[in-house]
Amino acid sequence: MDETSPQFKTLYNAMSTFVNTCMSGHDPSHNPAHVHRVVALANKILTSERALHPTTPYSGAVVKLAALLHDIGDKKYLHSLASVLESDSQASTLDPTTMVHHALIKNGATEVLASRVQTIVSHVSYSTEIKDPSVIRRLIDEEGFIELAIVQDADRLDAIGAVGIGRTFTFLGAQGKKFLVDGKWDMNNSIEHFGDKLELLEGMMKTQTGREMARVRTERLKVFRGWWEEEMEVVSS
Amino acid sequence: MDETSPQFKTLYNAMSTFVNTCMSGHDPSHNPAHVHRVVALANKILTSERALHPTTPYSGAVVKLAALLHDIGDKKYLHSLASVLESDSQASTLDPTTMVHHALIKNGATEVLASRVQTIVSHVSYSTEIKDPSVIRRLIDEEGFIELAIVQDADRLDAIGAVGIGRTFTFLGAQGKKFLVDGKWDMNNSIEHFGDKLELLEGMMKTQTGREMARVRTERLKVFRGWWEEEMEVVSS
């Protein structure tokens, strides 16, 4: 399906409404605004990578839909979906491995498009990649899911820089006592998350464009962490 | 009561336990860790101001107790106190204008000390000052509540810089849909809070030491806001 066709626009708008329905109740770290930033970042990376690699056959439709749907089925929020979707025929299942495929087909996507987007959505997450990085490499390098690289980079760019810092603390506040490290609901948990994950993302970027943008945003994380440590030093001495 | 006396240490420890009880369930933007940072900042400012103004008779006991108790009775969290304190004889009342006085007297403070600390605690907040700044000026300049300047500055330093940024987003996440600006639970609400309040605090600092520390931390807010605007520009174009 061509990304400039009227059919694509109709499908994209329907899926955008679906995403807003599923995520409107989420806290601001994972709400529709996050998704729409990731779509915009994916579009930016796509434009730049097409210019850098004119013969690589990126599907703009796959990039846009996978970016839009990348957080549908996120385990952290799955519990909140049941009530939202119980009367929504677009999702008769809460199975995170098939929800996106199901909703796409219901809204007129071809089987090929729905399958490609579902596969990418199912492999975007950091924790999935950490479990076995070779699966992701194989999908991108050997099985032709070249759009996964763009969607992953876009999602990870929104996890770093000033926006990433804001999202990390917002998530801490929203998750409440569920988000415990060593039994403590503490802002230092968020700072530990910088070193445990956020500062590692730059090294996992898959596109040249993503890597360049990540360099700037990772530097921001490090500057912020330096401020934090200096301010904590003042109150611990 | 001398701040180095055993009686003061006993009183301070009892009040510290009281604060931990009252605030242990609060989100990390206003929990005991925040209070203990404010106490440490107040001690730092006190030491520095004593060196700058050797003849000014600051009471260390008043500074330490008012810093420790400054958030007891905070309207934002008062609803959560009822269940915590229902079986606690230290607070037979949830009246924010007398809670601190009551708890201090119960734990052996003199009437003079309890009254001074209550008056300072009741006048620390930014929103109280904004309503009528002349009340605060009169307390500090004419009525001898010189410790209020130190406690206010300490509390406001913890609202800016990297820690202030973390607290703002944590509060956004924790308050949930109650924390709505124009009906939206949105990270931009936090950024608007920088310009509406946080960047104004430097100009309201009352001590030379607080003002110098606030300059550095306010610059951090502005740098962070610049990063934020740049990242938002990328996704809006």
Automatic annotation (TrEMBL), chains A, B:
This is HD/PDEase domain-containing protein. It comes from Penicillium cosmopolitanum. The lineage of its organism: Eukaryota, Fungi, Dikarya, Ascomycota, Pezizomycotina. Gene3D superfamilies: 1.10.3210.50. Pfam families: HD. Residues 27-169 form the HD/PDEase domain. SMART domains: HDc (SM00471).
